[in-house]
Amino acid sequence: MNDNVQVFREEPGFLKLFTLFKEKYRSLGRVGGAVSIIDFSNEEVESIAGFIGQSVDTLRDKGKISLLSFEKAIARTPFANYSLTQLLEEVLQESILTKNEEQAFDKERERSFFQSLCSMFQDGKWWWDWIQSKSSDTRWIWSLYKQDPNRLLEKLTAVFKAFQQLPTNGEFERLPLFAQRTTGNPHFFDYDQVTGKLLIHCLHVDQAIKGFRESGMPKTTEELNDLLGQYGLMRDDLWSFVTCRGLLAEDEYGVHPVWKAAANKDTVLNVPIKELLKVKKVSPVKGDKVWVIENSSVCSTIVDEVPAAPIICTHGQFRTASWVLLDHLIQTGCSIYYSGDIDPEGLTMAQRLKDRYQDRVTFWRMDKDSYENMLSEEDISTRLTKIDSVTSPELKEVVRSIKVRKKAAYQEGIVSKLIHDIKEEFIK
């Protein structure tokens, strides 16, 4: 600091006054306006009055000081070579930008930040653009940016490098081992770490862009595990399971003895992904059709009524284990007959299945007539936007009906018809 201006830091009231001047200048974008000195002490007013050549009483009566009048007063002092803004910067020891200048500077800094990311990872532009859009799910990322842009840049680049090395060809890898392989730190993607949350955000955005996800960032452990599972990552290979009956699995030694015993005894199996990853092939004990039901109580009722029929229960939203089992069945030439609740969630699940397996999927009792028979009194008006992503021609009519009725329909209402269908097809 120039020794000559040190006086303004020592004289009463000037630092307080200059701080008010700074905020007024930043707000207006120019030297103008006035600031109140009503709450200044007598000592502070006396000090300032002496500098600008006014009496204390006059200054007290005005109760304010204009920035332009103070700048004119400077010209009559030994600091005549300073403008007001130059003097403020020298005394306050900071560069002072107007709010407009600061916003322009911030925008340029943001542009440079994302330009750096794009120059390193052009193929990650879809993620950088999403973050740059400042959607609600990115607020916490922007909070990190404000704290330390350089640190965030390091974390984003590390996460995207790992994203480029995700398991491929249907392989699965435990999350800590993936973290060790890609970063050298097995805890790098733990969910209590910023980098763990950034990885989840990256996967979430990838799913959203591809039209596979509408519900936002995962909110539950189940949703978190399922999202990771879509990319071949296992956070918990025991928790994710699928229920089935009437299926046989083979490993490198042939037919798996546990699956064989279950088939012989017509036993229902809850199979975790840990065990599914050990088998090479899964097929029905009989035929080439498998009935897939999302409702566990409905599935249990059907199992009781139709012994040995090849049935899978997903227990609501598809978990990773469900996808792995269905992939095995598709690879062996099976056809999937899927039945779910006719509500926004059930229809989006049906669409996901169709997107993945195309003509190998038949929607089973998910038509307009079934909807009318299953209809409940539950109002789903607030959830109807979810079905905007349902584009399958086979569901077009029921989608139209649900938008008109605005009611959910549940499988329990047609369980007898589901049982009849399987018996007609399976018991011949």
Order of strands, main sheet, comes to 8-5-11-10-12-13
Oligomer: single chain
Number of structural units classed as domains = 3
Q: Give the second-level CATH assignment, the architecture of the largest domain.
A: 3-Layer(aba) Sandwich
In DSSP terms (H or I, runs of 4 or more residues), the helix count works out at 21
Query: What is the overall shape?
Result: elongated
Rg result: 34 Å
**Tell me, what is the CATH class of the largest domain?**
Alpha Beta
Mean pLDDT across residues: 90
Let me know the largest β-sheet.
Answer: 6 strands, mixed
C-alpha termini separation? 97 Å
Q: Per CATH, what is the topology of the largest domain? A: Dna Topoisomerase Vi A Subunit, Chain: A, domain 2
Tell me the strand percentage band: 5-15%
Could you say which structural class the secondary elements and strand pairing correspond to? alpha/beta
